[in-house]
Every structure is written in structure tokens, then in C-alpha cells.
Amino acid sequence: MTMKSAHPTYDVYTAIADPTRRALLLRLSHEGERNVSELLEPFSISQPAVSKHLRILREAGLVRSRKKGRVRLYAVEARKLQEVHDWVSHFEKYWDDKLDALGEYLDKQKNSKRKT
Predict the structure, then answer these.
(1) What values do phi and psi take at 9, rounded to 5?
(2) Are 43 and 37 in contact (CB under 8 A)?
(3) How much is the CA Rg of the chain, to the nearest whole Å?
(4) How far apart are CA 67 and CA 62, in angstroms?
(5) Is residue 9 classed as helix, strand or coil in its secondary structure?
(6) Pfam families from the xrefs (predicted)?
(7) CA angle in degrees (0–180, nearest 5) for 55-68-77
(8) H-type helices in 32-80, by residue range?
(9) Rounded CA gap, 60 and 15, in Å?
(10) Are 60 and 12 in contact (CB under 8 A)?
(11) CA-to-CA distance for 9 and 41, rounded, in angstroms?
């Protein structure tokens, strides 16, 4: 018999699927450590909602937190994003091939117009 955790564990893909969480990651990567109140400003959502997004990012390993006095500071833990990069890089060859084919097609179109 297995016991379910009180909180689901999120993987990196689930965590970055939400635009608010992606925006939080970008902001933390540009601005460094921030607390929830500082991160709340550009969003039109409540502090508990931002905290929930940060919890999901933390559970996915994309954000780390530490207590400083009475506040909790959050920072990006970008190492887990390597997993996404590795997965997406499998499709680079597909796009390179398609863009090369488009380039050849456009060159042929350009050359045929010059001849006419």
C-alpha cells in the first residue's frame, strides 16, 4: 500500500507550463533574490496565489528559498532547466532541416524570377 503525499510533486514541465510561473522565473533570473511582496507588484493576483506559484516552482526544483529574518527570499535554481533544454534540443535538427529547405526553395524562386 502506498501513501500519497499531502502535496503533489511537480515536474519541471508542469511548473513552466503556467505563464505566471515563467514570468516569476524570468524576474528572479534578472533581479536576483526577492521576497513574495516584491514579486507581487507586476501581477494582478493575490499574495497567496504568488506563494502557491513559488511553491510549485520550488517543488519542481526551479526555485530555492531561504529565510532572512521574517521574510523568505526566493532565487532561481536554473540547473533543472537543463532538462528542458536537452529535450528541446532534440528538435533543433528538425527546424534546421526545415529552414534549410525553405532557404533552397526561396533561392530557386528568386533565380526563376531573374530568368523571366
Answers:
(1) -95, 130
(2) no
(3) 22
(4) 17
(5) coil
(6) HTH_5
(7) 45
(8) 36-40, 47-59
(9) 6
(10) yes
(11) 27
| Residue 76 and residue 25 in contact, taking contact as beta carbons nearer than 8 Å | yes
Three cell numbers written together for 39: 514579486
DSSP-assigned letter for residue 4: P
CATH of segment(s) 12-114: 1.10.10.10
- Determine contact, residues 99/112, Cβ cutoff 8 Å: no
Give the cell for residue 73.
527570499
Return the C-alpha cell found at 98.
526545415
Tell me the pTM: 0.74
Positions in the chain whose pLDDT score sits under 70: 1-8
Residues in the chain: 116
Q: In the chain, where are the structural domains located?
A: 12-114
